Amino acid sequence: MRSTLEMPTRSGPASPVSTPGPVRPAPVRRRRRLHRLVPYGYLSPTALLIIVLMVIPIVMVIGYSFADNVIVEPNPVFAGLANYVKVLTDPNFLAALRHTVAFIMISTAAHLFLGLTFARMLNSPLLGGLAKAIFRLVYILPWLFTIAVVAVIWRLLLDPYGVVNYVLQTIGILQHGVDWLADPSLALWAVTFVNIWSGYPFFMISLLAGLQGISPELYEAAAVDGAGGVSQFFHVTIPQLKPILLSMTVLDLIWTSQQFALIWMTTGGGPLNVTEMLSTYTYKQAFSSYEFATASASAVIVLGLSLILALCYVRSQREVTR
């Protein structure tokens, strides 16, 4: 807006003169700009860490996957898709892929089943307060141990002279001790069992929280309509737990696909590569065979598979929030 003032002149009557409106001083404008930059200042340390610790390494590994003689030579040779062809045609990689898929699927299914079973038991009104507290403590114990401790415990338990063989021999199931982690026909099943044992408590706690959030009125209404326990489970419990079940399933697929420490500290991918996973295969390529270009190509493939699972998780979350 412009204001006019009547300015007298010598030659005649006053004439209107326009003057500019109020102008904000420069310090005020500067403070407002700085105020807008404050959120970015708070985010900058985290953004810097993500760039340095995630973005740059990922870009470097992707670049290594298209080169040859990386790290060893100062000027790597561009190899195109040769490393990817080498990896995808490697029988060991294909075997690791099969083992990983079996390991993931069995572990996730067992986590869901055991987690839901124990959660329903802990949510049952038949158990008193003290009994629930004791069972919760017992069932959550595997989740309290680190992977290193879990690996050491089960290596001792599954030893030919360990507790598991002793119990099975005592009750007459086995005639002699079995080396569960060294037998090619049993090692993958043994490692999968250990992973199931160490991972089901997280499902149990999450599903128990979901069960406690279901309104009792839904079960009362279903009972009035003549629904029994099985019908209530499939028509009330499962639909109410569907968002949690979907989210936990996709997350467990991602976490289990990245399992490395448990495999490495129990079997190391052996015996005869029967427990070789994509994670251990990539590690061996890099630090046992020193094939960093091949390891980079394998890592990029694993990254792509993980991104697919991550996109599935994001999509599931969007469906839940709708």
Q: What is the CATH superfamily of the largest domain?
A: MetI-like
Give the CA-CA distance, first to last residue: 47 Å
Number of helices: 12
CATH fold-type name of the largest domain:
MetI-like fold
Query: How confident overall, as mean pLDDT?
Result: 85
Q: Helicity range of the residues? A: 55-70%
Tell me the β content.
under 5%
Radius of gyration: 31 Å
Order of helices and strands: EEHEEHHHHHHHHHHH
Membrane topology: Multi-pass membrane protein
Transmembrane segments: 40-67, 101-122, 134-157, 186-209, 250-272, 292-314
Domain ABC transmembrane type-1: 97-313
Organism: Microlunatus soli
Summarize the structure in short:
It is found in: Cell membrane. This protein has 322 residues and is mostly helical. The protein is built from twelve helices and four strands.
